[in-house]
């Protein structure tokens, strides 16, 4: 079985092939997201703790969280489920996946280093892989570089260098910063608030005019009714004579 071990602290990954079943025994019958002591892999792994994050069996079917079995099952997937990508809008499809329990039929087991041990692991903890993409949201950039609100976030965007031809100036690709408060954004917000206030004032005037019109209509209706009743009473008096 192969173990694909990743270290989030450095961004590095290492793939090791283990044939000894005794070394793999502590991983058996463990579920996804459970933590295992990695000292069984060798003396250099003493003190390391790893978390099971997934895996694939020998036919390439992935493990799926929440399926409490070590066999392969066929499930009906829809949009939003892991191990599935819809090809058409609203499409559902039945696919084969493996349960979240580790067994000997896996080809690759994915592990994540949770706790670092005493010794360095060559290719995993002694090298740093730079991040290709940084955060896009303004507040997350501030959190990454520990910036204040007065600092200009645009100067701290992680830029990706592009391939350049000989004799040409080096170019970089930078993401568009999301939720960035600019003077144009503040101006637009002021305009939206002014329009909302204007609509409220206009509605207030129209409501007052409508109330005045309805009061006038009710007054005319009462007068019409009073005059109608007077006319009827006068006709009754004339008929009785």
Key terms:
alpha+beta; 241 residues; two-stranded antiparallel ribbon; elongated; five-stranded mixed beta sheet; 29% helix; single chain; 3 helices; 9 strands
**Basic shape:** elongated
In which range does the helix fraction lie?
A: 25-40%
Instruction: Report the total helices.
Output: 3
Query: Rg, please?
Result: 36 Å
Main sheet strand line-up: 2-1-7-4-3
Q: What structural class results from the helix and strand content? A: alpha+beta
Strand content: 15-25%
- The average pLDDT is 91
Low-confidence stretches: none
CA distance, first residue to last residue? 119 Å
Work out the number of β strands.
9
- Largest sheet: number of strands, sense, barrel closure: 5 strands, mixed
Which series of helices and strands comes N to C? Answer: EEHEEEEEHEEH
Describe the protein:
With 241 residues, the protein is an alpha+beta fold. 29% of the residues lie in helices and 21% in strands. Strands 2-1-7-4-3 form a 5-stranded mixed sheet, with no helix packed on it. A two-stranded antiparallel ribbon has the order 5-6. Strand 1 and strand 2 (12-17) form a beta hairpin. The longest helix has 58 residues, at 183-240.
